[in-house]
Amino acid sequence: MDNPVWMVLRGLSRGLHLAGYFSAFGAALFGAVIMPVPGLRRLAWGGFAVAVLGGAAWFWLQTADFASARSPSAVLAALPLVAEYTRFGWLTLARLALLLLAVLCAQGRRWRLAAALAGLGVLGESWLGHGAAMTGMEGWFLFACSLAHIGAAAAWLGTLPALALGLCSGVSPMVLAQRYSRLGMLCVAAILVTAFLQYLLLIGRVSAFFNTGYGEAALLKLVLFAALLTLAARNRWRLTPALPASRAALLRAILWETALGVLVLLAAGVLMQLSPPVMAAMAGMAS
Question: What's the pTM value of the predicted model, to 2 decimals?
Answer without folding.
Answer: 0.93
